[in-house]
Amino acid sequence: MHFKERAREKLGDERLQRNLQKIKGKFVGKRRSAITELDDFEDTRDAARAIRQHALDDLDVWLELFEANARARGATVLWAQDPAEINRLVLEIAFRHGVRKIVKSKSMVSEESALDLAIEGAGLEVVETDLGEYILQINGYEPPSHIVGPALHKSKEEVTELFHRRHGTPRKEGIEELCREARAVLREHYLTADMGISGGNFFVAETGSVVLVTNEGNASLATTLPKVHVAISGIEKIVPTLEDVATLMRLLPRSATGQSISNYVDVLTGTRGEGEFHGVDHMYFILVDSGRTGVLASEVREALRCIRCGACMNHCPVYQAVGGHSYGWVYPGPIGSILTPMYVGLDKAHELPAASTSCNQCGVVCPVKIPLPDLQRKLREQAFERRLRPWSERAALKAWAWVARRPGLYAAASRLGVRALRMLARGDGMIRRLPFGRAWTAGRDMPAPTGRTFRELYAARRNGESP
Ligand code: SF4
Predict the structure, then answer these.
(1) Which DSSP category does 123 fall into?
(2) What structural domains does the chain harbor?
(3) Does 144 contact ligand 1 (Cβ within 6 A)?
(4) Residue 366 in contact with ligand 1 by CB distance below 6 A
């Protein structure tokens, strides 16, 4: 995934850095005030964690129940082992129903299989209808940089230029005008599309329903106006009951965008029945494994509890600095640093679990209590054991482990270390350049230690001395 190279490039991209500065903290304050509306926020988090874990612990049972109930309501349930199978199944459905144009609401799983390119490659038209995804599509299929706001890294001015260029319309100044323009373009596509594709926030086992959570209403239009609806999602998105969805929905919008509830919540169940006005003629579910069962069998299985709220990336100092594209694949931020190595292979993405300050901001805000830094550490251990990390890093860690197991030597080495660091400091008590940590001090100064180790300071305090 070449995280380091990408991150270096993004840190030097002045326009991106300006845009990242503008959105920094955008959702942090909103989330903070939204969760104060709940007296029982921590209890709700515990309940949400339990719901997701319960679903994963008996995943096979819930998936079979979902399949039976969805079929009973007239839907077809298909299973995809890998990205290629997702694309094959979607194209088969499209050709079966004579589809020429597809409208699509946001689906991260379809990003895993580059579905849009496969659809276009088969000679069909596909239009993304989530505003962020639409912006990225008409900008040459730029990858999303955030799981909730795919185009958050773009400024209003960039979108103005893009719309002017791609729509051939006069430049619009305000965000409202830009939205209105996108809406006018997209409405035409909804009305002329033969098939709608959506993701799925939750798949409800007891009813065979898919739950879609949006703010723009695009999913509602994309999944009800065309005659065929295909909902694609990972197998881990299953929840046992609608009651469970209600609990999770108390946390999802609050954690994602700081809203008490999103503008639209669609619960779609089966095809149109006799005498019903609403509903599609054909409904398909494509439930995707593509590495999920591997994660379930691994020591980072808790990552599958994720409900894709994006709070971990909104609070991550690394994500905030380098942006989502640095992570090199579909899922950025702390959750991406776990899922990406698991889905594409740790050998290709071993830099990601190390792209962390281990500050645990992500773990603190995660609504389903995924211990993200712990999971990152487990993957770092695996990378170390599989000799994927550079030899210098492995040698340094081995040397450190050897010293750390010898308390006397460790104390002596620490004493030497803090005194040496003290000597490196300038008059203002800051270290500008560390000999073995130049990358670290390239972008920041390090406060110099007092010249005494933690143990010495602790002992001094216990003896009543001023440290
Ligand atoms: S890991 Fe937690 S905080 Fe991050 S997107 Fe998933 S649910 Fe949200």
Answers:
(1) T
(2) 40-290 (3.40.50.10420), 299-389 (1.10.1060.10), 403-462 (no CATH)
(3) no
(4) yes
